[in-house]
Design goal:
With 135 residues, the chain is of the alpha+beta class. The protein has three helices and eight strands, in the order E-E-H-E-E-H-E-E-H-E-E.
Length: 135
């Protein structure tokens, strides 16, 4: 686990999964079909707990401010700040490692209780898992 500083907000276009974890793949597929340019952008996964379990959004970085509204999709902002993070490689077929990594990251003593779990897909088979820390 290492700290990662995000020096600017990241604005995302999102599609909420109908369920977690089963609806995650479908949410990404549906999001990527919305606009062909999405396939060439950085992919993210955003999740947070709720009274009904985990809520998950498949997301891509906005090309311009308000793009999500233009397309009738949700928008989300990953706030700048310091995040506890861990990079995972060779995740295909081993997606359960992502959940276990977040379980570990969520134990950080400086965890921002209002933050979310952020997955930033940095390559075809790697992801950076991040949780925001208190300022």
């Amino acid at each position: 686990m290492e700290n990662y500083t995000l020096d600017h907000d990241i604005f995302l276009v999102c599609m909420q999964a109908t369920s977690f974890p089963n609806g995650v793949q479908h949410a990404f597929e549906k999001l990527l079909k919305t606009d062909p340019s999405f396939a060439n952008r950085a992919l993210y996964g955003i999740s947070r707990g709720s009274n009904n379990g985990i809520v998950y959004w498949a997301a891509v970085e906005e090309a311009y401010r308000g793009e999500g509204y233009t397309l009738g999709l949700e928008q989300y902002t990953v706030k700048k700040g310091v995040y506890a993070s861990e990079k995972l490689t060779n995740i295909s077929g081993n997606e359960m490692r992502i959940g276990r990594t977040f379980e570990k990251l969520l134990q950080h003593p400086a965890l921002d209780p209002l933050g979310e779990c952020v997955e930033r897909y940095t390559g075809a088979d790697e992801v950076v898992c991040m949780v925001r820390l208190k300022e």
